[in-house]
Amino acid sequence: MAKVTIQQLQKMKDTSEKISMVTAYDYSQAVMVEKAGIEIILVGDSLAMTTLGHDGTTALTTDEMIAHIKPVVKGAPSPLVIGDLVFGSYNEGISQAIHSSNRLVKEGGCDAVKLEGAHPDIIRAIVDAGIAVQGHLGLTPQTAVLLGGFKVQGKGRDAALKLLDDAARVEEAGAFSIVLECVPEEIGRVMSKVVNIPVIGIGAGRYCDGQVLVLHDMLGLFDRFTPRFVKQYRLIGKEIVDAFKEFKADIKSGSFPSDEHAFAGFSSEDADAILAEIQSREIF
Description:
By secondary structure, the chain is α/β, with parallel strands linked by helices. It folds into 2 domains: 6-237, Phosphoenolpyruvate-binding domains (TIM Barrel), CATH 3.20.20.60; 239-279, no CATH class. It is built from 11 helices and 8 strands. The protein has helices spanning 6-14, 27-36, 47-50, 62-75, 94-108, 120-128, 157-172, 185-194, 215-218, 236-253, 268-279; strands spanning 19-23, 40-43, 80-84, 112-116, 132-138, 177-181, 199-202, 210-213. An 8-stranded parallel barrel has the order 1-2-3-4-5-6-7-8, surrounded by 6 helices. The longest helix is centred in the C-terminal third of the chain and has 18 residues, at 236-253. The protein is elongated.
C-alpha cells in the first residue's frame, strides 16, 4: 500500500469514497492498522485514558505524545499519521502552537497535527509554517467542561449554525480535514456537504466523509465506559483476560511449560551431579 496523502483523501471525498481512520498508540497496534489498509492513524490524546490510565486527556504532555507517535510511525509507513496537540500546548498563542507542532512533526515523525476547537488564526499560522492541520469540532474532550460535559453538540438551530460557521472558518484557515464529534446525524450530513474538505465523523452519523474510532473502544480493550456511538467489532479485552486466567491455571496445575516448551541437551543425571557438588560447598 502506497503512502496515503492529503491529496488522496481529498479525492476520496470528491468521489464519495469513504475514509477510514483509527487511533493507535504503539508499534504493534500500528503494524495491525497497516495490515488492515486503514487510510489514517490518529495518535490521539485518548492515550491518556486508554494507555496511561488518566481520568481525562488534559494531563497528557507533549513529550508523552511524541514518545507514542514515534513507534506508530515506524509500524505504519502507509497511513497518514496525525499527532494530537495536547491540552496546554497551543492555547497560549501562535508561537507556542507552532513550536508544539514542530516538535510533533520533527521529533515524532508524524505527517500532520490535530487541534481541538475553532482557532482559525492558530490553524493558519501552523499551516503557513509548513505543517498540515486537521481540525476537531463538536464535542472537544480537552475543553468538555466548558461544553457542559460529554454531551451531544450542535443541537438546535443556533448551535448548529455556529458549528457550521466554525467549520467554514477552519476550512478557510487551511485545515485539510475536520474531525466532527458527537453531533446530530443531520448536522454531520450538512457539514459534509457545505465544506469542501473531508469531514471525519465520530458519533456524527453515517453521512460524513469518513469515520474514526478509538482502537480500545472498538476492540473492547477499555472497559470504564463505552460511548453510544462506538461499534465494538471484537471483545478482545475479554479474550485476553480469559487467556491470562488459563495461563495462571496451567502454571498452578503444572501443565505449563510442557516438554514442547522446554530445551533438552543436558541429562538429569549430570544436572543432579552438579547440584550435589554445589550443595557440598560451604558458600551454600
